[in-house]
Design goal:
elongated
Amino acid sequence: MRARASRCERSARAPVHRRHPKRYKPVEASMKRTFGLVSAAALGLVFMAPVPAQAEATVFRFSESHTEVVPETLECWPNQSGIATVTETSTGQVVDTGNRVFTVHGVNAYDYRLDFSNGQYVQSSINRDRYVFVASGQHTVYHVVIQDFRTLYDADGQPVGQMTIHAGYKIVYTDRNDNFQPDPNEITVEDEYFTLRCR
């Protein structure tokens, strides 16, 4: 039986969500990143390779960073558009226990600045996704928590507004067809929340 709970303030779905889904849709964003890290090749090695009698854990740490420059409008200040510069840095750890159990723990941290034509700008402070992915055989659990705090500054550098996002997503599924993706008939638990506050 599939259980689904959702308590989202969907009024927050403004253009930024459509233009920058990689950051603002917890479901697609962090899942795609994690499933990219846990690629079919890597999982194939974990789940299809013969397990030795005395299996040992294999640990792999990763770190990557990239920057995007995109036009953007934010939900809290919908009458202003500007150019956003977003640098994403991803760090984490992959552990293969050697016993058909595979885990990924990681953080995607964002340095975000949005410049408006009137000299105002938005700068992020805490802006990160923390996620955990655990696969044991075909049973898989994925959980991500998003914290996103930003401040609007006037042209003189004085703070004049704030935007905060708290969001999260959890999914539990059994990958019966071994395609490393949650198909609708495989999901047993799915829970999502999204809260936006403007001040």
